[in-house]
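Chapter review: from sequence to fold.
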Amino acid sequence: MSNILWLDYESRSECNLTTKGAYNYAAHPSTKVICAAYAFDDEPVLLWWADEPFPKRVADYFFSGGQIRCHNEEFDRLITWYVVCPDYNVSEPILERWYCTAVQAAANGLPRSLEDVGRAVDSQLKKDHRGAYLIRQLCIPPFSEDPTLLQE
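The token string follows.
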């Protein structure tokens, strides 16, 4: 069995995440998941789209697996609890299984932002700035419904 699930959601909502906070955003009735990137241990990253059945391996891991690691874990945990679990009939992972890599970075004297921590450790992996544009188009009202943006 895998020891770590790496998880990152992209979502959209009529609720303003910046002004209302992660809890209000996740609990808002308009909040929906667009997709999730996930990987187990050191396996390749997989992409799940919200119009597909929820991945069985992830659902099984939620029920009986190990640690769930996310950068800014609070957001992904709340999206899991308030959107994914009810919308896809998945068991809620308990609080103690979640681990925040942003907090780990800060505890080690590094920036909390994923882009900045990558720069600070001189990572070869760089943030794709096209992603910020796509987030603005797909996740912040007014939402673009252009299906070609999802292909990017």
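Two observations follow directly from the output. The longest strand covers residues 4-12. The chain has a mean pLDDT of 92.
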